[in-house]
Design brief:
The protein has about 600 residues and is α+β, with helices and mostly antiparallel strands. It has 18 helices and twelve strands. The strands form three sheets. Strands 4-5-12-7-6 form a five-stranded mixed barrel. Strands 1-2 form a two-stranded antiparallel sheet. A hairpin with a 5-residue loop joins strand 8 and strand 9. The structure holds flavin-adenine dinucleotide. The site of flavin-adenine dinucleotide has 22 residues, from strand 3, strand 5 and helix 12.
């Protein structure tokens, strides 16, 4: 069995829970089907196992360095990048006419999860290229698509997302990079960006930076931000990369995890003219970026889910082999020690890791399936419903796999005792790597504000209502499958969520600062209900399979894991709901100068 992801679990989620095969009936996916999807997943697994997993440690230990002004990355990275492009993974969701595989997002996501679970610090390079190319495909002109997409999808040009500045992180409205219009219709870009992942390297002949900047004289705030294509090297009329475009590396940042990914401080236009091309309309840049950031945010959740899965599988393997102690009733010291998986507490920890990993993977694949529905569902009502639900689930998909998944990795580490803490094993790296997912693509604090401040209030609570319809359907199906206890618990948990939401919306109406003060706790409570919905859905599918006499152990484990989730995790919502109902203001009322 792979120690990156469970193929069996992916098959279960894709085909039994999310009915991915049905997508092949849609015109965009014509000619596809389970055979095609399985082949894509097998290819991704093979690329992950050949090029990513073996260098997970090396990529962590041999950080990129600047040598004679050139960024040197560890040597396994280049073949990994080339193999990923060659397998079509960068181009997986792009139109066939542009060289893409035109796959559903849900299948592409499952494929990418293999790379991220195997070695996220290497996978980030092709994934950033995919993100940048998606942005051009969605908002670029036909001319821009024709010039930039082929070299990016083929793996000749890399890509980045360049939003953050030293004084504009969460508050992008304050960004200061400027774009000065030129007589030929291009722009001179001047400014500094920080934290730009994959911002400098020699893996590809060029790098396409997607830069947010303010056109000279544009209004202040978010409305004055535009999006630009800014290559590292100017591109010649014949498509080859020419002289420097004056995107200068001012320094590499050294991080706790994702060490193989270059994190760069970049100066644009400091040492000479830096030319950028406007994408779409002026002043719409942040809206474009946010559109794509929803996908990027689901991608963050997917990376977290993949790392939590890898840690879970690693710990299971360890717990089966490591022998320590005897069971509490065993009085005979001459009996051999038992494998630690025999101890109830170890199984408790493995179940936390299982619920976190498999629940997180379900969440991110569900979101990717909703992206497919939003764009390709045959009727408009279904597209709108998918869109609403996606709005609601995206901040949760970004943040909860990085929190609960981190708890899963932490428990996987604990299963291994001291060895889990040792750098000779993989878990400590997964723990460090996954910690980033709470921070980038909008911190989890910002996700909480987005969920409570925007998503649940927009269109008079339509998104929560859309989630409520899914919950009601899951409850009815679970009852029919004999899961009455869990069905009733989900009903109650959702009713509690609605009551808490109402009281917080009322508090926000009176005083937004006070109403939003505990948004992070609200995000936790909501996320637990979302996972309860997903786990009930998985348990229902499994219960039906058992009733039909299929593959007992896998399905029985799903039902038992759901019961564990409902017994050990969901009840944590009780105290959180109480705190939110009285809207405890202890943090808000604590004056900054008392710290
Ligand atoms: C390894 C790494 C890779 C990255 N890659 C990229 C990349 O490729 N491209 C890119 O553009 N950026 C990238 N980033 C930047 C990342 O998106 C930012 O770090 C993130 O958005 C937070 O910004 P900040 O670090 O400036 O923190 P700050 O914005 O200073 O936030 C600090 C703290 O204050 C909180 N806070 C801030 N504002 C509010 C508010 N209004 N209400 C409540 N709390 C608030 C935050 O939640 C956080 O806890 C990367 C960052 C890291 C660490």
């Amino acid at each position: 069995m792979s120690s990156v992801l469970s193929s069996r679990d992916l098959q279960f989620l894709l085909y039994e829970c999310l009915d991915v095969e049905a997508l092949a009936a849609r015109p965009r996916f014509a000619g596809q089907g389970r055979e095609v999807y399985d082949a894509v997943l097998d290819t991704a697994k093979a690329v992950a196992e050949a090029h990513y997993q073996p260098s997970r440690k090396r990529n962590d230990q041999e950080e990129p360095q600047v040598v004679d002004g050139v960024v040197v990355t560890q040597p396994d990275l280049q073949p990994a990048y080339a193999a990923t492009a060659e397998a079509g993974i960068i181009a997986s969701t792009h139109d066939a006419e542009r060289g893409g595989l035109q796959l559903p997002h849900v299948v592409a996501s499952a494929a990418i999860a293999w790379l991220e679970g195997a070695n996220v610090g290497s996978a980030s390079y092709p994934m950033l290229t995919a993100g940048a190319s998606n942005l051009i495909a969605a908002f670029g002109s036909e001319d821009q698509k024709a010039r930039w997409l082929p070299p990016m999808l083929e793996g000749r040009f890399g890509g980045t997302m360049a939003l953050t500045e030293p004084d504009a992180g969460s508050g992008l409205a304050d960004l200061r990079t400027v774009a000065i219009p030129q007589p030929d219709g291009t722009y001179r870009i001047e400014g500094t960006k920080i934290w730009i992942s994959a911002g400098e390297h020699e893996l590809t002949e060029n790098i396409v930076h997607m830069v947010l900047a303010r056109i000279q004289g544009a209004p202040a705030g978010t409305k004055g931000i535009s999006l630009f294509i800014v290559p590292k090297r100017r591109v010649q009329p014949d498509g080859t990369s020419g002289p420097s475009n004056h995107v200068t590396l001012a320094g590499l940042i050294h991080k706790m995890g994702w060490r193989g990914t270059t994190s760069t401080l970049l100066n644009f236009g400091e040492r000479g003219p830096c030319v950028g091309e406007l994408v779409g309309e002026p002043h719409h840049g942040l809206a474009y970026m946010f559109h794509m950031m929803n996908e990027a945010r689901i991608g963050v959740g997917r990376a977290a889910a993949a790392m939590a899965s890898a840690a879970h599988l690693y710990a299971i393997d360890y717990a089966r082999q490591r022998r320590q102690g005897r069971l509490p009733g065993e009085k005979d010291p001459s009996k051999p020690p038992v494998p630690i998986i025999e101890h109830a507490d170890v199984r408790r920890m493995l179940l936390i890791a299982k619920c976190a990993a498999e629940g997180s993977m379900d969440l991110v694949l569900t979101c990717a399936r909703l992206v497919d529905d939003e764009t390709t569902a045959p009727d408009e009502a279904a597209r709108k419903e998918a869109s609403l639900l996606l709005e609601f689930l995206t901040p949760i998909a970004k943040s909860w796999p990085s929190i609960y998944g981190q708890e899963g990795i932490s428990n996987a580490m604990q299963v291994m005792g001291g060895y889990g803490y040792a750098r000779e094993y993989d878990i400590e790296q997964l723990y460090r790597d996954n910690r980033l997912n709470q921070i980038h693509e909008g911190t989890n604090g910002i996700q909480a504000l987005d969920l409570l401040g925007r998503k649940v209030t927009q269109q008079q609570g339509a998104a929560v209502a859309a989630f409520g319809r899914r919950v009601a359907a899951a409850v009815a199906e679970a009852r029919a499958a004999g899961l009455e206890t869990e069905a009733a618990a989900l009903e109650a948990a959702f009713a509690q969520l609605v009551a808490v939401t109402r009281s917080l919306v009322a508090a926000m109406t009176q005083d937004p600062t006070r109403g939003l003060a505990n948004a992070a706790v609200y995000l936790e409570l909501t996320s637990r209900v979302v996972f309860a919905w997903l786990w009930l859905r998985q348990a229902t599918v499994a219960a039906r399979a058992i009733a039909a006499g299929r593959d007992e152990a896998f399905y029985a484990a799903k039902v038992a894991a759901a019961r564990f989730y409902y017994g050990f995790e969901l009840p944590k919502n009780g105290p959180d709901a109480e705190l939110l109902r009285r809207n405890d203001s202890a943090a808000l009322d604590f004056p900054p100068d008392w710290f």
